[in-house]
Amino acid sequence: ALLLGALLWAPWRALHGAPLAELSGDQDFQLFLHRNLEFTRKIKGDVAALQRVVCDTFQLCKEEELLLVRQDLGIAQAPLEQCHGRTFQAESCFSQIRDGLRSYHGSLAAVLELLPGHAGLVETLQLDTANLSSNIQQQMEDLGLAMVTFPTEGRGPLPAFSSRFHHQVGGFFILANFQRFLETAYRALRHLARL
């Protein structure tokens, strides 16, 4: 039985790079997780502040009222399915978080155009998003985790908004999607911190 256990475990270890059990006790890894949990919480707060600005400025506050316009815009949510319970793998999850952060960093340019009076907050958010993405990239390299590249179909440049209203709704959905993305990323980092 012991030999069978060892045989079953060996391929799993090779497939997954550094096993989470080994990572979870690593003090540097735990420090990374806790710092970036705080960083993610800060970014979520900044996104929420911009969502309030969009709500106050354009009276765009409720997603369900804008779903028909959303279909026309083609603004997709950056995927994070690798960070969910059953399919969770550290390498894949970190890769998706990193890729999603890069995607939202670019998308925030549309929000910057929309809210020039709040350029400071949007630019800080872009900088923080780039820094969090870099932190994750660096940590993956430090831990020897394999980089996972996911197909990018549907995540090209932002759509050209046909009207000012579409631009406003686009900004609304970029922020709403980013907030959901950050919630999932936060839960994934918290899950790793508890292992």
From TrEMBL:
SMART domains: IL6. Coiled coil: none annotated. Residues 1-17 form the signal peptide. It is found in: Secreted. GO terms for cellular component: extracellular region. The keyword Glycoprotein applies. Keywords: Disulfide bond, Glycoprotein, Growth factor, Secreted, Signal. InterPro entries: 4_helix_cytokine-like_core, GCSF/MGF, IL-6/GCSF/MGF, IL6/GCSF/MGF_CS. Pfam families: GCSF. GO terms for molecular function: cytokine activity; granulocyte colony-stimulating factor receptor binding; growth factor activity. PROSITE patterns: INTERLEUKIN_6. The keyword Ribonucleoprotein does not apply. Belongs to the IL-6 superfamily. PANTHER family: GRANULOCYTE COLONY-STIMULATING FACTOR (PTHR10511:SF2). This is MGF factor. It comes from Podargus strigoides (Tawny frogmouth). The gene is Mgf.
